[in-house]
Specification:
The protein has about 290 residues and is mainly α. Helices cover about 50% and strands about 0% of the residues. It contains eleven helices and no strands. Helix 2 (about 40-45) runs parallel beside helix 5, helix 4 runs antiparallel to helix 5 (about 110-135) and helix 5 (about 110-135) packs antiparallel against helix 7 (about 160-175). The longest helix is centred in the middle third of the chain and has 26 residues, at about 110-135. The relative contact order is 0.10. It holds the Pfam family SusD-like_3.
Length: about 290
């Protein structure tokens, strides 16, 4: 009898342990379940979005004054294709939407709202660039997987719809972002950066629609004007006027003139290889 009781107790213990979920998430791997937990996680993830901004450096060819290339162009050869062109990448948008989908893991509401604002700013910026290049483009505000075939091949949304979403994202970002940059050189997006870009995007769309015979251009021009007025009246930014050559000093100073510069790209050649071409010049040479 004692043996039977021991077997029964042992069986119950085995059943009890089997009913527990002992699956542990790997501590050395980043997963949605163990990331996006605090302000630091949110900041680190959104840092990558700043690479969407225009490149700080520019390059130019110095072949000759007549700029004759050695080879035949792809258009003439007939080898140019859409697949070989740049500018159609959607990787950064996926990273942005992925963040917005999982940032709710963070219990710090203040941090969550701030970095959601950063993500919304850059989603708006991402699509503003896309519309300028392509016009109508598909709008995605969610993370897509391989099973989302219909969404992956859906038709383009109208530029009006996309630009309305762009302006909404900029405005939503403005309500969540801080009024001052978290970095002293104004290299982080703020409420005022969001409003400045919203005004620029609305002005672009309004003038594009006006001079291409499209409807509703007045709406966008009114948004541009009202947003710019809010920026001028409330932001505290003003034109830099110090010294005898203020315009030159704006671009030659070691750090951004934060009285005028709303959003800056940091010069950091030694560490991050971020430079510019302000001092670039072309030698005056004779040919022949």
């Amino acid at each position: 009898m004692k043996a039977i009781n021991k077997i029964i107790i042992l069986g119950m213990a085995v059943a009890l342990f089997n009913s527990c979920d002992l699956t542990l998430l790997p501590e050395n791997a980043v997963t949605p379940e163990n990331y996006f937990q605090n302000k630091s996680d949110l900041e680190l993830w959104t840092n990558q979005f700043y690479t969407l901004l225009d490149e700080p450096d520019a390059s130019a060819g110095t072949n000759a004054d007549d700029m004759i290339d050695k080879g035949m162009g792809q258009v003439i050869e007939g080898t140019r294709s859409a697949a070989s062109e740049t500018g159609w990448s959607w990787t950064k948008l996926r990273h942005i939407n992925y963040f917005l989908q999982h940032s709710s893991n963070c219990d710090d509401e203040t941090a969550r709202n701030q970095y959601n604002g950063v993500a919304q700013f850059f989603r708006a910026y991402f699509y503003f660039v896309k519309v300028r290049r392509y016009g109508d483009v598909p709008w995605y505000d969610q993370v897509l997987g391989s099973e989302d075939q219909e969404l992956l091949v859906k038709a383009r949304d109208s530029r009006e719809f996309v630009m309305n979403q762009v302006l909404k994202d900029f405005q939503d970002a403005a309500t969540s972002l801080p009024t001052k940059s978290t970095e002293t050189r104004n290299t982080r997006v703020t409420k005022w950066a969001a409003l400045a870009f919203a005004s620029q995007a609305a002005l672009y769309e309004g003038t594009y629609r006006k001079y291409h015979g499209l409807d509703n251009y007045e709406k966008y021009l009114e948004i541009a004007a009202s947003t710019a007025r809010q920026f001028i009246d409330e932001s505290g930014f003003s034109l830099y006027k110090e010294g005898t050559e203020p315009y030159r000093d704006m671009f030659c100073a070691d750090n951004a003139k934060t009285t005028e510069v709303v959003l800056a790209r940091a010069y950091n050649f030694e560490g991050l290889q971020l430079s510019h071409s302000v001092q670039f010049s072309i030698a005056n040479l004779q040919m022949g």
